[in-house]
């Protein structure tokens, strides 16, 4: 492994921790610096759970990388542990992007976002909110919580959905009472109570996690999952987005990812892989997905590509103003 720096940053008063990988080639360097890819994991994932190989490949391709853990997870601080709050995680993305822009040798105008699974939806929402991100990639993304809940009911049954809901209610009651969170496993075998129990989920997830990874999560997230539909924000993207769809995905419905691409309009790009949700992190799935991501970043983070996009946005704004009704006073 090459050089990697430890970075601490504060999000809502809590310390989050990141690894910063400087770019190792000058392939994309300009006088302003190099592009930077901001990365974080999906549901319950941490930066050391299968993401380091991506960061290494990106750095070797001339991209700086800012890879962070959310509050309450992994190396970052925050109590209670293992608490998934969509609002908190999106705020962590906001701060991480701002901190990445301030890193030495980073071109603040060439920030890219990388997400996977649950964070594949986060990067759409974060880029739409930021308004200045230059490129987005989302692999095996969870773009629609309602679709994910419906999918869970289809493979695990309505009873499983009811059990998860009751676990969420129990955790919410514990929270109101000031008690410790009620935890459920993040991933489990089919027939067990866990957030993910599809046929390939347990072996697939455990294959990328370190020995000290915690397979548990505060159950209250189950009460709000269906209301989180980040793919619907794709029409507000400020940049091209590559959506990498696992055609045999048992966790994140492929059709929701395809709908996101359509919603993104001219900025939507998609690639399909005949693999399952967790196959994209290892072996041939990793090699192909990361190669496609690097090619996408190299296409859209060059100075020429950035200038072309600036001109297009300027032209679109002028056309929009010309169509606006003129008010006479």
Q: How would you summarize the topology of this molecule?
A:
Elements lengths: L4 E7 L2 E8 L12 E6 L12 H9 L3 E5 L17 H16 L4 E11 L1 H13 L4 E5 L5 H12 L1 H20 L5 E2 L16 H6 L10 E2 L22 E6 L7 H10 L4 E6 L9 H18 L2 H21 L6
Parallel strand pairs: 3-4, 3-5, 5-6, 6-9, 9-10
Antiparallel strand pairs: 1-2, 2-4, 7-8
Helix pairs in contact: 2-3, 4-5
Protein architecture, described:
The chain has helices at residues 52-60, 86-101, 118-130, 145-156, 158-177, 201-206, 254-263, 283-300, 303-323, and strands spanning 5-11, 14-21, 34-39, 64-68, 106-116, 135-139, 183-184, 217-218, 241-246, 268-273. The chain has 329 residues and is α/β, with parallel strands linked by helices. It has a domain at 5-146 and 228-303: 3-Layer(aba) Sandwich (Rossmann fold), CATH 3.40.50.1820. The strands form two sheets. Strands 1-2-4-3-5-6-9-10 form an eight-stranded mixed β-sheet, with helices on both faces. Strands 7-8 form a two-stranded antiparallel ribbon. Helix 3 (118-130) links the parallel strand 5 and strand 6 (135-139). The longest helix is centred in the last third of the chain and has 21 residues, at 303-323. The radius of gyration is 20 Å and the shape is globular.
């Amino acid at each position: 492994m090459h050089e990697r720096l430890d970075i601490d940053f504060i999000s809502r008063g809590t310390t989050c921790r990141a690894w910063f990988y400087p770019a190792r080639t000058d392939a994309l360097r300009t006088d302003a610096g190099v592009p930077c890819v901001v990365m974080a994991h999906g549901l319950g994932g941490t930066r050391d759970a299968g993401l380091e190989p991506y960061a290494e490949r990106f750095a070797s391709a001339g991209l700086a990388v800012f890879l962070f853990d959310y509050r309450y997870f992994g190396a970052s601080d925050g109590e209670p542990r293992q608490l998934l709050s969509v609002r908190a995680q999106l705020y962590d993305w906001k701060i991480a992007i701002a901190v990445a822009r301030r890193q030495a040798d980073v071109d603040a105008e060439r920030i890219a976002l990388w997400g996977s699974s649950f964070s594949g939806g986060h990067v759409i929402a974060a880029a739409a909110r930021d308004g200045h991100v230059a490129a987005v990639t989302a692999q095996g993304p969870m773009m629609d919580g309602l679709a994910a809940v419906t999918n869970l009911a289809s493979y695990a049954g309505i009873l499983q959905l009811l059990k998860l809901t009751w676990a969420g209610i129990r955790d919410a009651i514990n929270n109101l009472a000031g008690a410790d969170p009620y935890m459920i496993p993040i991933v489990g075998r089919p027939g067990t109570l866990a957030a993910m129990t599809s046929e390939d989920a347990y072996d697939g997830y455990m294959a990328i996690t370190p020995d000290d990874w915690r397979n548990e999560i505060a159950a209250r997230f189950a009460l709000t999952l269906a209301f989180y539909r980040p793919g619907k924000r794709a029409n507000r993207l400020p940049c091209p987005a590559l959506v990498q769809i696992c055609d045999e995905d048992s966790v994140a419905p492929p059709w929701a990812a395809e709908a996101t691409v359509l919603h993104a309009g001219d900025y939507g790009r998609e690639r399909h892989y005949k693999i399952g949700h967790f196959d994209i992190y290892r072996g041939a799935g990793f090699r192909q997905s990361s190669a496609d991501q690097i090619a996408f970043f190299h296409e859209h983070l060059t100075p020429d590509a950035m200038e072309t996009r600036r001109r297009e946005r300027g032209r679109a704004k002028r056309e929009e103003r010309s169509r606006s009704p003129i008010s006479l006073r």
